[in-house]
């Protein structure tokens, strides 16, 4: 079984297509499932470049946390830093810093270098979805709360996949509740799917 979230879900789908004898089931967490919806998603190259520059940080975590707190949030007018956001706490920035320390900078290149469009153009959504033969669980975040997988994506994938199931995680956006520790709905969906295999 392979579980992929966001862009990781696209790589999970590719594995399901390429090595069907190894991948018994796929869980696809909130990603675009067609070239049209993937191309329509906004991206912030500046933020990704910042993450690339800080990925693999080797200094003290407190110092990285302070850097993140001082970084300007993209698209805010008037300008505001992450540390000034009312719903962001230093402990959350420390958690982000901890993730960046473990992140391979190469993971960010797709966005930081502006290669996303080339990736989308080369990703054969229809062919890959049609080729997958194992059961697939589509986990959709709520689009009104920042979920990326649209209802059209779900309909498109369900029509192409040979065995697909869909669960919308209510009251959760792109992070499917994993980013807010509201994980009961996603754990319930995943556990039910795995028990059915």
Structural commentary:
This protein has 197 residues and is of the alpha/beta class. The chain folds into two domains: 2-37 and 120-195, Rossmann fold (3-Layer(aba) Sandwich), CATH 3.40.50.1820; 45-112, no CATH class. It has ten helices and four strands; from the N terminus they run βαβαααααααβαβα. The chain has helices spanning 7-18, 35-40, 45-54, 61-70, 90-102, 109-112, 116-122, 125-131, 151-160, 184-195, and strands at residues 2-5, 26-29, 136-141, 164-169. The longest helix is centred in the middle third of the chain and has 13 residues, at 90-102. The protein is globular and about 50 Å long. The model has no long low-confidence stretch (mean pLDDT 89).
Question: Could you provide a short overview of the structure?
Answer:
This protein is α/β, with parallel strands linked by helices and 197 residues long. It has ten helices and four strands. It has two domains: 112 residues, 3-Layer(aba) Sandwich (Rossmann fold), CATH 3.40.50.1820; 68 residues, no CATH class.
Would you spell out the secondary-structure blueprint of this structure?
Blueprint (H helix, E strand, L loop, with lengths): L1 E4 L1 H12 L7 E4 L5 H6 L4 H10 L6 H10 L19 H13 L6 H4 L3 H7 L2 H7 L4 E6 L9 H10 L3 E6 L14 H12 L2
Parallel strand pairs: 1-2, 2-3, 3-4
């Amino acid at each position: 079984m392979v579980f992929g979230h966001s862009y990781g879900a696209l790589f999970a789908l590719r594995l399901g297509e390429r090595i069907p004898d190894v991948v018994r089931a796929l869980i696809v967490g909130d990603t675009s499932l067609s070239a049209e919806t993937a191309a329509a998603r906004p991206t912030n190259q500046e933020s990704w470049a910042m993450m690339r520059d800080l990925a693999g940080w080797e200094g003290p975590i407190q110092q990285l946390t302070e850097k993140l707190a001082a970084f300007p949030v993209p698209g805010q007018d008037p300008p505001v830093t992450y540390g000034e956001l009312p719903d962001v706490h230093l402990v959350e920035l420390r958690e982000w810093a901890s993730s960046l320390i473990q992140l391979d900078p190469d993971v960010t290149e797709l966005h930081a270098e502006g290669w996303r469009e080339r990736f989308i153009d080369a990703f054969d959504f229809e062919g890959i979805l049609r080729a997958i033969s194992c059961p697939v669980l589509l986990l959709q975040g709520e689009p009104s709360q920042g979920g990326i997988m649209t209802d059209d994506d779900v309909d498109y994938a369900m029509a192409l996949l040979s065995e697909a199931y869909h669960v919308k995680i209510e009251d959760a956006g792109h992070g499917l509740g994993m980013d807010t520790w509201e994980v009961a709905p996603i754990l319930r969906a995943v556990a039910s799917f795995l028990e059915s295999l």
